[in-house]
Amino acid sequence: MTALKRALFLDRDGVINVDIGYLHRAEDCVFVPGIFELVRQARKAGFDVFVVTNQAGIARGYYSEETFAAFTGWMLEQFAAEGAPITQVYYCPHHPTAGIGGYGIVCECRKPAPGMLLRAAGEHGIDLSRSIMVGDSITDMEAARAAGVGQCYLLQHAEGDDEAGLDVVRVSTLADVSQDIAARNVGSR
């Protein structure tokens, strides 16, 4: 039997790119400092890397799934060019109250539900207990904990306090996460 792999799960807006609200065009994208190095470090340590992102802009009709897919393709090209390939992007196009048409539903994929992480684990043979989540909101942390992710990093610019009482590591930069991954994973592939 093949051993399960470890994964680094990344929220998109606020972790990969500066959150400007409903980003869907390459010309508006500014990458968060340290994101490429973090992905390179995770890859070097043997992690697969996934993006798990709520995309309420689709649900609200601000942009289409096709527009999102085009932007995502461009983003993946940027990561590949930086020697930091992303394994796969999972997204939730729904919103329970503001979604239009078929997008206005309560689903299992929208964080804080763990659906995207569980799907990635099932499709890619991921050991969630040995995996990492980096997010900038409590809902990111709640989704990761509900899925059984072993280590969660909450970027300091997150809204609100850790009122959920979740066991997370608060960091102020992605470099903090990169350094921690390097320190924790010396010889532990």
From TrEMBL:
| UniProt entry keywords in alphabetical sequence | Carbohydrate metabolism, Cytoplasm, Hydrolase, Magnesium, Metal-binding, Zinc
**Any single Gene Ontology cellular-component annotation:** cytoplasm
Give the residues the record marks as binding Zn(2+).
Answer: 92, 94, 107, 109
Compartments it resides in: Cytoplasm
Tell me the Gene Ontology biological-process terms attached to this UniProt entry: carbohydrate metabolic process
Q: What class of enzyme is it?
A: hydrolase
Picking any one GO molecular function of the record gives: metal ion binding
Q: What is its EC number?
A: 3.1.3.-
Q: Which residues bind Mg(2+)?
A: 11, 13, 136
Q: Which cofactor(s) does the record list?
A: Mg(2+); Zn(2+)
The active-site annotation reads 11, 13
**UniProt site positions, description: Stabilizes the phosphoryl group:** 53, 111
Residues flagged as site, Contributes to substrate recognition: 110
Alphabetized InterPro entries for the sequence: HAD-like_sf, HAD-SF_hydro_IIIA, HAD_sf, Heptose_bisP_phosphatase, Histidinol-phos
**Could you tell me the superkingdom of the organism this chain comes from?**
Bacteria
Tell me the protein family, please.
Answer: Belongs to the gmhB family.
> Which PANTHER family does the record match to this protein?
D-GLYCERO-BETA-D-MANNO-HEPTOSE-1,7-BISPHOSPHATE 7-PHOSPHATASE
Q: What is this protein called?
A: D,D-heptose 1,7-bisphosphate phosphatase
Q: What is the lineage of its organism?
A: Bacteria, Pseudomonadati, Pseudomonadota, Betaproteobacteria, Burkholderiales
